């Protein structure tokens, strides 16, 4: 590649809008949180999906949310010798370094990662070679969630959603395989939560951990 | 812990504000992007830091940004057999599945991950045992960036910023170790960019890949 | 002194009671908070007085309260070059290191420190030489609080209490002279509170910062 | 911040529990000690750490312990013109005003203050500027204790504990630089003691001043 490309104009326009409109109202927050360090009370493990941005959905101010985003908002089980260090390192940073109080595993509808898992599962061994070097392995983390599916709808869309729900339940279970998290939850110093965002309607569904069901958020 | 905790009230209030104010203006976007699928043109690899949310800084609408967030916005080098699958899987998903046109490696000032790398590097062998099971290994990905430091300021804050800059340059180099990305960039189908957000002033510094310098965004 | 004294038997008995009765119920908290580090959400600046122990009065579990205790629960004004580093260092440690959310200045009735200040003030310049090398200087920190006295009771006991109240108000004002605290309070990340414990009745009086009055705690 | 925040609910609940359960059993103690004044026989110089509350560990009743708490339970050397008046004033108040018989310097494991001292010592001149205005100076009081380290363990945790022990020895030495304390100890009117609390196991280690060793408390 010879000449270097200009910075994407859409991003530049977006930044200018931020700088001229929102920044003036929050410049104090930015300056102060730069000087004193961030102190978020909530960590969110969300999906990279462009339609499910936690700061947008929770109308968050700078400094409020420590956000990990990977494909399908997956939480690997605790495995210090394992292959999923990126997400586990971020979880550890939030729990030990930032001492967050709340951890939210946040899924969403029509998740491409969950869809890819279902496709490869259904295609089975005769499937055409997966051209992927990484995705296939990563989404295999969804598999254990199959055990936690509660609903059994007729249609494929419903079945995918049931697995999206189950994967959030599984993510919370996996968080509990981290000794520090399990221990801090045991003494009431950390709370684990689950939620699912319906990207087509904007509804937020909250996991009721007593019933295992997801209920539409009131309020 | 026996009884299940209520959903954090701050998050619920934030969601209600989103649902009552922003959602009505963007419900069409959400509905249509749910039906047709997301088609973001930009992938951002950013940091989990609560003060550096890409959607906020780029004033992004739902569907515009595919966002990966890990500690210190690191891009692992291409390594199909390696240990950093989470981020690599998301990069692959964005490039192959979503066909993004722009990839932005976005760092920020006073990054706790870079700071932790510097501290462990300087502490050396006498350092107290790192109680971390994951962070230490993850931030070791910063090390190669030391070669790409351009500035040599007097003070520690300046030295950290110089390494934050270098780590962005390294991230872009690492993106080019992915065969698909290198090839697509070569034929002008993908552009790689770097930026650094000053969390104390809200200034965006853009990497000029011709000079290797970061310049404050005009516009 | 020749032979070394045995450890005070009263303390030993007290520890044995703790070890045999309370520790078994809280051993998990101790072990977990040792492994993960403390994460108190409240910092209390209290008096050394033996009748006003914060953990007792707030029935606190291990790990809940970060507690500074000095004579008359005084908060020195911010003065990096000044002489009161002990308390200021502890305040800084709680705010910056532990990221506490609440700071409570807690006074109490019949405070010997406030009493000593009043005695030396009333004795005036003709007072017999204060034999104290430190106390006189330390309690001089009470003086500015005279401006914040609201009540004007007849009797000496009432006047001392009014000054104890005022000294708590002054302590909160002095906390606001710490740039980090003033800033974090401004953006709602830290709350400052005041309370006064009546050691003769066990009543807790809470400062209503809207009216400046102390009201008996309900609940 | 405009509106005044409500008193933290956790503290209010804790006070209510104290008022309804413990206070009724000790109301006589509180009333009498209010009328006659406090007469604690023991002064404890402890750490602000939320996991090392003296009243809890010694199961103390109201009026028993006069408690000074600062970061790392440090005793400054006698220095009437010096900068550490807060702690020295409290020591003087306890010895001269309250006529305590026992002075206990009480340390604990995994002390953040001692850890901060070690970190800054090891980081050396290359260390990032200490953003602290007070902590750095305060913990420099730990330095002389390096001379009194007896153990030389392999691991960092053990080395920190050895320094925590030494700092307690140093604190007792510093108490003896106060003329009144040195004199009163000489004629057997005051006893100086040291102890170290293991926050992970709840074990109390008592300093044997004949051997200089810390032994687990029996009894």
Automatic annotation (TrEMBL), chains A, B, C, D:
Domain of life, source organism = Bacteria
Record InterPro entries: Beta_CA_cladeB (IPR045066), Carbonic_anhydrase (IPR001765), Carbonic_anhydrase_sf (IPR036874)
Select a single GO molecular function from the record's annotations and give it.
carbonate dehydratase activity
Q: What is its EC number?
A: 4.2.1.1
Matching Pfam families, A to Z?
Pro_CA
Coiled coil spans: none
> Keyword annotations for this protein?
Lyase, Metal-binding, Zinc
Name the chemical reaction catalysed here.
Answer: hydrogencarbonate + H(+) = CO2 + H2O
Cofactors that this protein relies on = Zn(2+)
Homology family: Belongs to the beta-class carbonic anhydrase family.
Under what name is this protein listed?
carbonic anhydrase
Q: Which organism is it from?
A: Kaistia geumhonensis
């Amino acid at each position: 590649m010879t000449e270097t490309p200009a910075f994407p104009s859409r991003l530049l326009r977006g930044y200018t809008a931020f700088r001229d409109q929102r920044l003036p109202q929050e410049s104090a927050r930015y300056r102060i949180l730069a000087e004193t360090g961030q102190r978020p009370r909530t960590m969110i493990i969300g999906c990279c999906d462009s339609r499910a941005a936690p700061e947008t959905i929770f109308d968050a101010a700078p400094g409020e949310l420590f956000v990990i985003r990977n494909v399908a908002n997956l939480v690997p089980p605790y495995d210090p010798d394992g292959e999923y260090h990126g997400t586990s390192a971020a979880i550890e940073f939030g729990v030990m370094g930032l001492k967050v109080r709340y951890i939210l595993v946040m899924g969403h509808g029509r998740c491409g990662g969950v869809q890819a898992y279902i496709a490869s599962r259904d295609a089975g061994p005769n499937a055409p070679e997966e051209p992927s070097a990484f995705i296939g392995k990563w989404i295999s983390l969804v598999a254990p969630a199959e055990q936690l599916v509660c609903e059994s709808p007729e249609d494929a869309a419903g079945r995918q959603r049931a697995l999206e729900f189950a994967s959030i339940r599984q993510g919370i279970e996996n968080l509990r395989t981290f000794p520090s998290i399990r221990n801090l939850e045991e003494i009431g110093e950390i709370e684990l939560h689950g939620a699912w965002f319906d990207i087509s309607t904007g509804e937020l569904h909250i996991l009721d951990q007593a019933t295992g069901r997801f209920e539409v958020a009131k309020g």
